[in-house]
UniProtKB/TrEMBL annotation:
UniProt keyword Oxidoreductase, yes or no: yes
InterPro entries: 2Fe-2S_ferredoxin-like_sf, 4Fe4S_Fe-S-bd, 4Fe4S_Fe_S_CS, Beta-grasp_dom_sf, Helical_ferredxn, SDH/FRD_Iron-Sulfur, Succ_DH/fum_Rdtase_Fe-S, Succ_DH/fum_Rdtase_N
EC number assigned by the record: 1.3.5.1
Stretches assigned to the 4Fe-4S ferredoxin-type domain: 146-174
Xref: Pfam families: Fer2_3, Fer4_8
Protein's UniProt keywords contain Iron: yes
Lineage of origin: Bacteria, Bacillati, Bacillota, Bacilli, Bacillales
Name by which UniProt lists this protein: succinate dehydrogenase
UniProt-listed GO biological process terms: respiratory electron transport chain; tricarboxylic acid cycle
Species, as recorded: Scopulibacillus darangshiensis
Annotated keywords: 2Fe-2S, 3Fe-4S, 4Fe-4S, Iron, Iron-sulfur, Metal-binding, Oxidoreductase, Tricarboxylic acid cycle
Length: 253
């Protein structure tokens, strides 16, 4: 039935960060259960557009191919998502592929997500340790806390929530939902609590919580279903309490 069938892809391309974007159309042989990544790999193998012209292979990022690394984020038919889990059979055709607009384009579908990673550095989204030697077992989390913390830990820094958020753009320094949710995750960790005040101060200034417009696009678009708006609500409370502690000179948590 599918013999000879082809799938058409319209790809927004850009030869470099300062180059003008343009569209180029390709066709690849249809295969059952084919995803967008496998189609891009087919195009890369034989980079000839529908006009019969040889062209440079499209550039994109990928790694795990199982929706864990977050590298293959792009806009597929107008929606930011992961290319590895976007099945062609479930997509309206022709399939349109565009780079995420929140981040600067490096080339074609590959973007520079430094904005998000810099925000994670700002809020110290990690657990500091004293050296790399064996410290023995750490403190245990209560099971109820561990369950919701696990949901937050699913974040793969794909950038989709930043792409979906109207408050994250070139005219705003809002860090976006993903770094904010990581603040809640690491502040809930028994060891991470030692840096709770520092992390809260990181989101209480410019580009932090106050820049969130509560559009709730993030929680609807997150590939992992992370309760981002719940984290933001909890952080609003924590930052308000921290403001009182700062005013009255109390470090009590």
């Amino acid at each position: 039935m599918s013999e000879g069938k082809k799938v058409r892809f319209i790809i927004t391309r850009q030869d470099g960060p300062n180059a003008a974007p343009y569209e180029e159309t390709f066709e690849v042989p249809y295969r059952q259960n084919m995803n967008v990544i496998s189609a891009l790999m087919e195009i890369r193998r034989t980079p000839v557009n529908v006009k019969g012209e040889e062209t440079a292979p499209p550039q994109w990022e990928m790694n795990c191919l199982e929706e864990v690394c977050g590298a293959c984020s792009m806009i597929i038919n107008g929606k930011p998502r992961q290319a590895c889990t976007a099945l062609v059979d479930k997509l309206e055709q022709p399939v349109r592929l565009e780079p995420m607009k929140t981040f600067p384009v490096v080339r074609d579908l590959a973007v520079d997500r430094s904005r998000m990673f810099d925000a994670l550095k700002k809020v110290k989204a990690w657990i500091p340790i004293d050296g790399t030697y064996d410290l023995g077992p750490g403190p245990r989390m209560a099971e109820t806390s561990r369950q919701w913390a696990y949901e937050l830990s699913k974040c793969m820094t794909c950038g989709v929530c930043l792409e979906a958020c109207p408050n994250v753009n070139s005219k705003s320094d809002f860090m976006g939902p993903a770094p904010l949710s990581q603040v809640r995750l690491f502040n809930a960790h028994p060891t991470g609590k030692m840096n709770k005040k520092e992390r809260l101060h990181g989101i209480m200034g410019d580009g932090g919580l106050a820049a969130c417009g509560n559009s709730q696009n993030c929680v609807q678009s997150c590939p992992k279903g992370i309760p981002l708006t719940t984290s933001i609500a909890a952080l609003n409370r924590d930052s308000a309490l921290q403001s009182f502690r700062d005013f009255f000179g109390s470090d009590h948590q």
